[in-house]
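I am still getting used to backbone structure tokens and would like to learn alongside you. Label the sequence line and the structure token line clearly, so we can match residues to local backbone shapes. Would you write everything just below, so we can both look at the same thing?
***
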Amino acid sequence: MNGKRIQATGANLRVKQVRSMVGQKQNMRDTLRSLGLKRPGQIVERKADAATVGMINTVSHLVQVEEA
């Protein structure tokens, strides 16, 4: 699964930060922190609900997503 166009299915998603937040706009940095990501290479697991999917679609160019 590549970042953009993820649907809210309720499945578990494994989100990995692949790019740094340095040089990104503040709302992108805030979104990554809300997802629980602090540094490149870090992985978190989240439910694919509407709020989480919206955040992932916002920072799709900074994260890699796969179904857990």
